[in-house]
Each structure stands twice: as C-alpha cells, then as structure tokens.
Amino acid sequence: MDASGLLYQAHRKAALAFARSIVRDTNDAEDVFHEAFTKTIQAITNGAGPSENFLAYLNTAVRTTAAGWWKRNSRELPVETGDLDHCVPRDPRDEEDLLDHAAYEHVIAALLSLPERWQKVLWYADVLQHKPRHIATLMGITPNAASALILRARNGLRGAYADMLKA
Fold first, then answer.
1. Same domain, 15 and 90
2. For the segment 99-112, what is each residue's pLDDT rounded down to a tens digit?
3. pLDDT < 70 stretches in the chain
4. Nearest to 81 by CA among 118, 117, 119
5. Rounded to whole angstroms, how far apart are CA atoms 116 and 143?
6. Domain holding 118: CATH number?
C-alpha cells in the first residue's frame, strides 16, 4: 500500500495530463485516471503488471480505460424528460387526436417507472420500429428473447399506465 501511494504521487501529474489530452473533460479525465491507476495496481498485485516503466504501463491503461468510457458513453445519449415535450406534434388540426395533458403526463410517468431495459426495448420496437432480430443484436440477446422482452415491456407499460390512472 505504501508503494502504491508513492507510485500515485510520482506519476499522478503526468498520467492525469495524458488522460486530459484524451478525454478533454477534467472530471472525466480524473475518473479515467483513477480507474486506470486502480487497474494497474491490481495487475501488479496479481503479478501481471509492469516490473519496469510504470508510467508507460499506466498511460496504456489510461488509453484503454478512456476507450472503454467512450464506447460505453457513445451507445446512449441521455435525454432530459423535459425534452420529450418536443416529440409530441403540436399541429392544431391534430388536437383532437392528441392525448389531453393529464393523460400525457400519466403515459410519461408510466414509461419512466419501467425498468431501463424495458424502456430501451420499447424505444427500439415501437418508436424506431426495429425488428426483434435487430433489437436482439443491439441488446446482446437472442431474437426470441427480444420478442419476449418486447411483449413483457408492453404489458408492463399497460399495467403501469393503468396504475397511474388509478392513483
């Protein structure tokens, strides 16, 4: 533990600067650096880490960690729930077809009460109109599992909406 503290002090500044050059956001760079440093110390503890040139090994870990962060974060784009209002058509000719505001709020609340996995599969199936075999690829499951998940998510949304109306 003392040695890892010394390594941290000796290489923090250089490795953090390298992380900032890759990630750009200071907070994310800090997170990437700390995750990479932890992985490097774990590798050393398990006998697989560097025996020489710690900084080069650490910088490689920083690069790998940053790539992993980028890959995870590029898959999903967070959306504020307030931004969903822009998805509803506001054409006055369609006013009769639109849900009244209270019903709309119930639908949003019901959708947000569902597990994230169900929200995602409903988005792929009902909004983007993807086929179950494509959804299966996106979610890392079989096409049959995707079909079953879509059915469960739709039933879950119906139930959650009914619960919202009762409340």
1. no
2. 455 566 778 888 88
3. 1, 72-104
4. 119
5. 19
6. 1.10.10.10
